């Protein structure tokens, strides 16, 4: 691939961030990101994920003692313009005074690439993000999805050492989001570029991440592959944040067990571990989601691909396979 | 044509208000080109008074243009970076400063001028030069420049755009001149026209600060009404009118255009 970047491994050493007003945005933490890896920082707003991304980018400096290393070299003191990273923002952050080509070629212009090479590269990049022929368009003539593609092309044009994406899909509507997510996934895989992707959307995190770091109030609660995080969450926070989670004691007097809605099977009465009545029914097309009252403090969520019609008030017998139970 | 009485009442009132406002202007213009205003239009029309204004007061016209241009230069150099700094700073001190900026507009020009005279009146060379008036004009017009540029900068999420430019390797100067200034252009243009227009027409502060050798156009106008025949004062108004109207038209055209692209 012509755009194969000089991807580098990134290492963070006791990187923390305290804002001038005293708020602790980030507890000191260490993190290793392999060259070519896509790491997703996932968490609710205010968990420190954006601050962490901005420290990697060089838009914020970590508290004293923290170090950021690109390929083993300390870049902590380098401002963003000298780190050679590509950034993609939630608000696209395209330059309104430039057309699409000028936006994509801006980094090359800064690097004094001559006009001819710049034009050729810009066209290649526009092809890469499926925007051939859009070069002369003004930014306000583009849809949100097209703008974010331009932003991606602009970030990739300078062959960055890492690509940093800050909630790039959040401003888009659901259908576009899914489509662009697939395109970003294809790009990240084919370019094998070290990427850090910030999102609060767990399905985005699972779909895109080689590894996912779930963050909670300035700390990394758990880091691992999407499968590890989903099937073996280490804390209740992680378990709840990644997908829905049922919790109830499976035997009288036993402690609460945790299990996923899709692992809660509907069984005949004689095989039931527990029973309840349907409180509400949500038919979602490919599956049906049922809220079931089993007498515990919380309603149980059951997801089934069974095509029959469920009714409110209907009794339901349920079971969970032992291997589907989560142990924290 | 069977309209209710109310229609005719409303029409009559509207016409009356329009005439009330327009007739004095027409009379003033007429006075400036009439041979003898006390005899009336039948004395004939002439451009003599306008010519006379030019020989008597041409210096005030040049000085006004000179001060307006200098004032524009100063407000650009001070105002655009100030607006940029305010747009980048999110804390409450910046917001408080923004509020303070309107003070020179709210405080009577007379008070501003008095303060300047109290403070710098003893510096003879400065007091007697046109730059003394310039300082007053800059104080008065700077808020308009800052506010106008700030409004545009706030509308385009300047901070993130600058971060994006930085991530692509642009140094501070490259970001400022290639990204920030071009995108703040509508605000800078609108602010500039505002500053020039206000400076040209400013009377309160200027009247206090001027010396017989540093009369601007509006001050000269007051002088001519006070000491010359009415026809000359009126002709002077026509001269002023022809200088200020193109600026006002440009201002309107520009704000329309900015509205459309925004």
Describe how the helices and strands are arranged.
The complex is a heterodimer of chains A (328) and B (262).
Chain A: E1 10-18, E2 24-33, E3 38-42, H1 49-57, E4 67-70, E5 73-74, E6 85-88, H2 100-110, H3 115-128, H4 144-157, E7 162-166, H5 174-191, E8 195-199, H6 202-208, E9 211-216, E10 219-224, H7 226-231, H8 236-241, E11 246-249, E12 256-259, E13 264-266, E14 274-283, E15 288-293, E16 300-304, E17 315-320
Parallel strand pairs in A: 3-8, 3-9, 6-7, 7-8
Antiparallel strand pairs in A: 1-2, 1-4, 4-5, 9-10, 11-12, 13-17, 14-15, 14-17, 15-16
Helix pairs in contact in A: 2-3, 2-4, 3-4
Chain B: H1 5-33, H2 48-88, H3 92-100, H4 103-106, H5 109-120, H6 124-128, H7 130-155, H8 158-167, H9 172-201, H10 204-209, H11 217-227, H12 230-261
What do you see in this structure?
The complex is a heterodimer of chains A (328) and B (262). In chain A, α2 packs across α3 (115-128). The model of chain A has no long low-confidence stretch (mean pLDDT 90). Helices cover 26% and strands 29% of the residues of chain A. Chain A is of the alpha+beta class and 328 residues long. Chain A folds into 2 domains: 10-239, 3-Layer(aba) Sandwich (Rossmann fold), CATH 3.40.50.300; 261-324, Beta Barrel (OB fold (Dihydrolipoamide Acetyltransferase, E2P)), CATH 2.40.50. The relative contact order of chain A is 0.13. Chain A has a 6-stranded mixed sheet with strand order 6-7-8-3-9-10, sandwiched between helices. Chain A starts with 9 loop residues before the first strand and ends in an 8-residue tail after the last strand. Chain A is globular, with a radius of gyration of 24 Å. Chain A has 8 helices and 17 strands. Chain B is mainly α. Chain B has a single domain (58-261), classed as MetI-like (MetI-like fold), CATH 1.10.3720.10. Helices cover 82% and strands 0% of the residues of chain B. Chain B has helices at residues 5-33, 48-88, 92-100, 103-106, 109-120, 124-128, 130-155, 158-167, 172-201, 204-209, 217-227, 230-261. In chain B, α9 runs antiparallel to α12 and α11 (217-227) packs antiparallel against α12 (230-261). The two termini of chain B are 44 Å apart. Classes of the chains: A alpha+beta (328), B mainly alpha (262). The A-B interface holds A 57, 59, 79-82, 84-87, 89, 91, 93-97, 106-107, 110-111, 140, 151, 154-155, 158, 164 and B 156-157, 160-161, 163-171, 174, 178-179, 182-183, 185, 261.
């Amino acid at each position: 691939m012509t755009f194969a970047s000089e991807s580098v491994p990134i290492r963070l050493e006791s990187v923390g961030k305290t804002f001038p007003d005293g708020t602790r945005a980030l507890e000191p933490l260490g993190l290793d990101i392999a060259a070519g890896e896509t790491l997703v920082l996932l968490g609710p707003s205010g968990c420190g994920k954006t601050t962490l991304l901005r420290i990697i980018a060089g838009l914020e400096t970590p508290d004293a003692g923290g170090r950021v290393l690109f390929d083993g070299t300390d870049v902590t003191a380098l401002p963003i313009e000298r780190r050679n990273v590509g950034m993609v923002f939630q608000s696209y952050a395209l330059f309104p005074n430039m057309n699409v080509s000028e936006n994509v070629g801006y980094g090359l212009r800064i690097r004094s690439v001559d006009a001819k090479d710049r034009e050729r590269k810009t066209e290649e990049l526009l092809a890469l993000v499926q925007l051939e022929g859009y070069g002369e368009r003004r930014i306000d003539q583009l849809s949100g999805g097209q703008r974010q593609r331009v932003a991606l092309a602009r970030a990739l044009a300078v062959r960055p050492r890492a690509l940093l994406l800050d909630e790039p899909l959040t401003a888009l509507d659901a259908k576009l989001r899914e489509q662009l997510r697939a395109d970003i996934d294809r790009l990240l895989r084919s370019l094998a570029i070290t990427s850090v992707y910030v999102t609060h959307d767990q399905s985005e995190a699972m779909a895109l991440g080689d590894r996912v770091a779930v963050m909670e109030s300035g700390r990394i609660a758990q880091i691992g592959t999407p499968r590890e995080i989903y099937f073996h969450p280490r804390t209740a926070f992680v378990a709840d944040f990644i997908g829905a989670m049922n919790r109830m004691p499976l035997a009288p007097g036993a402690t609460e067990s945790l299990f996923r809605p899709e692992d809660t099977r509907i069984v005949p009465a004689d095989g039931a571990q527990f029973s309840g009545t349907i409180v509400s029914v949500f038919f979602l097309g490919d599956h049906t989601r049922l809220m079931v009252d089993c007498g515990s403090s919380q309603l149980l969520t059951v997801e089934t691909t069974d095509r029959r019609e469920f009714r409110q008030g209907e009794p339901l017998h349920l079971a969970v396979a032992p291997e589907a139970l989560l142990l924290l | 044509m069977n309209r209710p009485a109310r229609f005719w009442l409303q029409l009559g009132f509207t016409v009356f208000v329009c005439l009330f406002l327009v007739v004095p202007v027409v009379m003033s213009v007429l006075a400036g080109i009439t041979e003898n205003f006390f005899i009336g239009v039948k004395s004939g029309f002439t451009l003599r008074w306008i010519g006379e204004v030019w020989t008597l007061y041409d210096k005030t016209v040049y000085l006004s243009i000179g001060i307006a241009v200098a004032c524009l230069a100063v407000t650009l150099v001070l105002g655009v970076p100030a607006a940029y700094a305010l747009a980048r700073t999110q804390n409450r001190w910046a917001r408080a400063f923004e509020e303070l900026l309107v003070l020179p507009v709210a405080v009577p020009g007379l008070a501003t001028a008095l303060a300047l005279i109290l403070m710098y009146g003893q510096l003879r060379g400065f007091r007697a030069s046109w730059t003394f008036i310039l300082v007053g004009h800059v104080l008065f017009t700077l808020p308009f420049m800052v506010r106008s540029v700030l409004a545009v900068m706030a509308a385009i999420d300047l901070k993130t755009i600058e971060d994006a430019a930085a991530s692509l390797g642009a140094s501070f100067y490259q970001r400022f001149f290639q990204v920030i200034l071009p995108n703040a252009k509508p605000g800078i243009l609108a602010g500039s026209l505002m500053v020039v227009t206000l400076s040209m027409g400013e009377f309160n502060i200027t009247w206090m600060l001027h010396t017989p050798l540093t009369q601007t156009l509006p001050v000269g106008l007051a002088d001519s009404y006070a000491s010359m025949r009415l026809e000359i004062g009126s002709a002077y108004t026509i001269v002023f009118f022809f200088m200020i109207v193109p600026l006002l038209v440009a201002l309107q055209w520009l704000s329309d255009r900015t509205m459309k692209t925004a």
